[in-house]
Here is the input.
Amino acid sequence: MTKPRIALAVGIICISIFPILVKLNLTPGLISAFYRMVIASAILVPYVLITKKFKVTSRKTFFLTVLCGVVFGLDVGVWNIAIQQSTATQASLLTNLSPVWVGIGSFLFLKDKPKRNFWIGTVVAVIGMVLLVGFDLFLNFDFNLAFIFGVLSGMLYAVYMLTSKRVLGEMEIMTFMMVSLLSSVVSLGLLSYAMGEPFGGFSTEGWLVLVIQGVVCQLLAWLLLSFATKHMRATRVSVSLLGQAILASILAWWLLDELISVQMVIGGIILLFGIRLTFYEKPLFKSKV
Here is the structure.
């Protein structure tokens, strides 16, 4: 299990820069998501076809993979909008509540039910997240479209995680990535066109940010995260992704001059401790008979 955990850790690092890049507002949120998928596809699709790694096991699995791509594309799109219309912190918090939705979905629909340690670790991690972002954020929550999109992003990601876990049990990672990426491109492209989003006219910095999103935040990150999802429980992967909030805060301090308080440090430690609890195999509390 060492390689999947390393892949998960590196993948989390790769996606941690994403909120910072989006918050620069160099391109509209929805079109940013579109080009993120386009650039990743432009690299991955030729490689998969040339190396003949494209293998579809069944029609049902193929259509589920298409669904994954559409859902993930919408997830990134609404998250981008939530970040740009509120704050990166609020949007990240709301979308990172996805482990709760993943846990509920796993309990209802998967054979591999979440264990007690998952629920304990999730609660601890969410408490750490609250401390990390600060109580003021909750007191000042603006329940507008950005808030709704933030919550919707977490739900969409939970659907993606649960569906991809099932699909990756029957399909190779490269085929899964190719089909899901192309599905994201088509769905986001149609949606962007329908909403009148600009497909060009960006600055040099804007295009550079789009390339970084496509190569690092999408292609590299999700190849690694798909590998981790294939070999680990979906619940563990989803909770571990909460760690990106810590890295995003450090990057915001470094690149955007945002302050890091003692409370944020304590919250980050508690959050990491909660994630660690979900990986602990033995029961934390033994029930008395």
Q: What stands out?
A: The CA atoms of residues 90 and 137 lie 7 Å apart. Residues 2-111+141-232 form one domain. DSSP finds 14 helices and no strands in the chain. The mean pLDDT is 80.
